[in-house]
Amino acid sequence: MKFIFLFLGKTRRKYLETAISDYAARLGHFVEVDIIVLRERYSRNASDSEIKKAGSNLLLNRSGR
Known about the structure:
By secondary structure, the protein is α+β, with helices and mostly antiparallel strands. It has one domain (about 1-60). It contains two helices and two strands, in the order βαβα. The protein has helices spanning about 15-25, 50-60; strands at about 1-10, 30-40.
């Protein structure tokens, strides 16, 4: 079994990054774990609905492009 975690954009919060890597390490003893961080592809002045739509499309696209 393989768990794949998809994240949209990197986190700037160090505690979240630490928690994610700790969880992946613990889980990695039982299953294969893959963490994929996709680049955000929207402008800073985009509306919330535009951001959600762009993020959904990016996550649903298998290649991440």
